[in-house]
């Protein structure tokens, strides 16, 4: 796997810097570890392989952001939901900014940011919605729906006077010839005090 080779060689193939002493004499190994997900009796241990860096000068072992990304991805796989990279790739596949994607899908932009940055894991319902968005025809349906809504809003804004729901109900009853019948029924009822 080329990604592991890149990890072992450091960013852009160069060495990593020790966060303690600043030296660049770093070696990297892949370790098996576990991520604990959940609490108390519901906690599960999820196995994951992460890169661990070792400073050959001060002997410090340390991990980096990529190790945290791998741990988060392991939890996502355990929960059977998309990883942050997979969520970002949906939006990027359509060439949309986060704000554009949020507006079109009606997902919160802040929620998208949290999911894409790995700060929060989406629930199963949102994950299903995101999965459906991997199919371009579904995003196209959302675009069509948005266009129809905008058109409908433009027509109602340009052609309508302020609506009075009581007036509309009265007009509908008169047109259907039911006003007299409903009026007669209303007079039969007498309000009495309870108790």
Properties at a glance:
195 residues, alpha+beta, 434 Repressor (Amino-terminal Domain), three-stranded antiparallel β-sheet, 3 strands
Q: Tally the beta strands.
A: 3
Beta-strand content bin: 5-15%
* Structural class category: alpha+beta
Oligomer: single chain
How far apart, in Å, are the first and last alpha carbons? 80 Å
Describe the strand arrangement of the main beta sheet, using strand numbers: 1-2-3
Q: Which stretches are poorly predicted, pLDDT < 50 over at least 5 residues?
A: none
What integer value in Å does the Rg equal?
30 Å
Helicity level: 40-55%
DSSP helical segment count: 9
SSE succession: HEEEHHHHHHHH
Q: Choose one word for the global shape.
A: elongated
**How many discrete domains?**
3
Mean pLDDT: 83
Describe the largest sheet: 3 strands, antiparallel
Can you characterise this structure?
With 195 residues, the chain is of the alpha+beta class. It has three domains: 1-79, no CATH class; 81-134, 434 Repressor (Amino-terminal Domain); 148-185, no CATH class. Helix content is 53%, strand content 13%. It has nine helices and three strands, in the order αβββαααααααα. The protein has helices at 2-9, 65-79, 84-93, 98-105, 109-117, 124-132, 136-159, 165-175, 179-188, and strands at 26-37, 44-55, 61-62. It has a three-stranded antiparallel beta sheet. α3 (84-93) packs across α5. The termini are far apart. 11% of the residues are buried.
């Amino acid at each position: 796997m080329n990604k592991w080779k890149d990890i072992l060689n450091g960013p852009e193939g160069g060495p990593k810097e020790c966060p303690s002493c600043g030296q660049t004499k770093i070696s990297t190994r892949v370790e098996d570890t576990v991520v604990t997900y959940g609490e108390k009796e519901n906690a599960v241990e999820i196995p994951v392989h992460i890169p661990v860096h070792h400073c050959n000068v001060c002997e410090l072992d340390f991990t980096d952001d990529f190790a945290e990304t791998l741990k988060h991805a392991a939890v996502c796989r355990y929960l059977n939901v998309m990883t942050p990279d997979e969520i970002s790739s949906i939006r990027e596949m359509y060439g949309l900014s986060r704000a554009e994607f949020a507006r079109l899908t009606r997902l919160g932009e802040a929620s998208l940011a949290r999911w894409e940055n790995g700060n929060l894991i989406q629930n199963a319902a949102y994950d299903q919605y995101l999965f459906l968005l991997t199919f371009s025809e579904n995003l196209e349906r959302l675009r069509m729906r948005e266009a129809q809504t905008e058109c409908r809003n433009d027509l109602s804004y340009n052609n309508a006077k302020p609506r009075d729901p009581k007036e509309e109900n009265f007009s509908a009853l008169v047109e259907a010839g039911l006003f007299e019948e409903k009026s007669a029924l209303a007079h039969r009822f007498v309000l009495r005090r309870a108790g």
